[in-house]
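ESCALATION

Customer reports they have been waiting on this structure for their group meeting. Please prioritize. Original submission:
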Amino acid sequence: MKKIKIPLQTAPLIHCITNAISVETVANALLYIGAKPIMTEDTRAFDDLIRQTNALLLNLGSLSLTKEQSILAASEVADGKEPILLDVVGIASAKSAMKIAKVVMEKKPTIIRGNISEMRALCGLATNGRGVDGNPLDQTDDELARLIVALKQLPQESVYVATGAKDIVVAKDNAWILSNGVPELDRFTGSGDTLSGLLAALLGAGVSPEDAAVQAVSYLNISGEMAKTKANTAGIAEFRQLFLNELSLLGIDNIDWTNQIRGTKNGKTIIFSDSKIWGDGE
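Update from on-call: job pushed to the front of the queue and completed.
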């Protein structure tokens, strides 16, 4: 595994078709970590953009017929030319979203992300999710183990990221369970959309999909942990602002932030402060 330096040094340009409710948040999050966003859904621009961009983010939130056309057109243009991050928000509650997700999955997206309830739906497992929210009933240890098995049955050209109180990354033979984060990250709109932006940025910077998944999830969650320690009140609006601030500060103030990652790989606890896990790969 290679340690990622944030802010990113190469300023990757990320084409984002994302959730309308969090467009500004995602765009700024990309800037905070050293990437560059372009947030257009205009299909007329896609042939030009593909010659400039480094990754494509497709988020199924706030769907419409026009947005569906943009998502499908962008995935067609990017197929085989740049990494694709597919965020399957809403597929647990809307057949239209699931249908689009299945079409885009034919392009073998580099990473597919959703909350645990959404990723259960993607695998055909029963889900207790409501709307775009995950459900704790889907997040017991037994259910997480069942989801990992199901994700391994999906096409292994993609890396799968399922987020919740604990986060899952499935990459071919490896299954990670990551344990950083705070409950407040689930109490404002756009934290999942922001994570998808970070994932796309790391892919655009040339980071391997597995490394990008493990470290983007952890960077966001540790930013949340740091924000909570700095909050003067229990107010979520204050926490949200501090969290967004931490996205721009964590990699500068603490270059060894990866030492704070907590998790397991294939059931074995990983000590991320151990230099032996970093380098050209295990």
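Sent to customer with the following note: The beta strands are 13-17, 36-38, 55-59, 84-87, 111-115, 159-163, 167-171, 174-178, 262-265, 268-271.
Escalation resolved.
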